[in-house]
Amino acid sequence: MAQVVADIKALEEELDEECARELAGAFLEDAAGEMVAVDQSIAANNADELKAHAHALNGCCRTLKAPDAEAVCTDLEMAAIEGDWAKIAAIRPVLQKHYDEVCAYIHSYLGN
After folding, report:
1. Which pLDDT belongs to residue 112?
2. Cα 9 from Cα 13, distance rounded (Å)
């Protein structure tokens, strides 16, 4: 069975297709901004800002029911709380992989 990147179909069932499509589109915009902010926080060695942006990104992933991406965001948030910059450096490329997968899935879902 294929792994679920994001369960937008479940969103359609919970809400409706129009709302699911709006949330998917909002993810592309909101998560992109959070990814930039994550990188800026890492570059500035600002653990508090990183924690906040990882938490916000986590919420974006949770909304789209993207469990793997959500788990990585949780790991990043915890690493920021701990101030574990080595762990943060290790998590960042994993976050990018999951973010890219979710974005590709959403683009496919939206047909763009």
Report:
1. 85
2. 6
Look at the block and give the residue holding tokens 């986590």. Answer: 58
- d(CA 53, CA 110) in angstroms, rounded, equals 25
The C-alpha angle 103, 83, 88, rounded to 5 degrees, equals 30
Structure tokens at 83: 């101030």
Backbone φ and ψ of 66, nearest 5°: -110, 80
Mean pLDDT of residues grouped by 10 in the chain (112 residues)? 78 95 96 98 98 98 95 98 98 98 96 89
DSSP code of residue 44? T
Using alpha carbons, select from 13, 56, 17 the residue that is nearest to residue 34.
Answer: 56
Compute the distance between CA of residue 60 and CA of residue 75 in angstroms, rounded to an integer: 15
Q: Hey, what amino acid is at 33? A: G
Residue for token pair 């788990």:
71
| pLDDT confidence of residue 3 | 67
Instruction: Provide the pLDDT for residue 1.
Output: 39
